[in-house]
Design a protein that fits this description.
About 80% of the residues lie in helices and about 0% in strands. The protein is mainly α.
Amino acid sequence: MSSKNKLALAAGTVVALISTSAFAQDAASATNANDVYAWAAAAAGFAIGVAALGGTSGQGKSVAAAVEGISRNPGAAPRIQTAMILGLAMIESLVLFALVIAILLWTKITVGA
């Protein structure tokens, strides 16, 4: 058995054993409204953080590729630059969608509380 298979088996076993404890809580410690708001706040922060991280790394890679392409073929610079700007706009729109989702979750926390 290879090391990858052993690692996958160990990870699957840990997940299977840990997940059963989630069903073992009693009725007194059931979820309440404050737990929902806490998880919504955590989700909003996580969403905007991951979106910013992914957006910046995607923009950095696309600009690096465009600059490399322009340096190899300066005559194609206008076409490369146009495609790069369109790509950057699409990447930024995804980050803005994550910001909108984070704001919606934030309003659910502040208005709903």
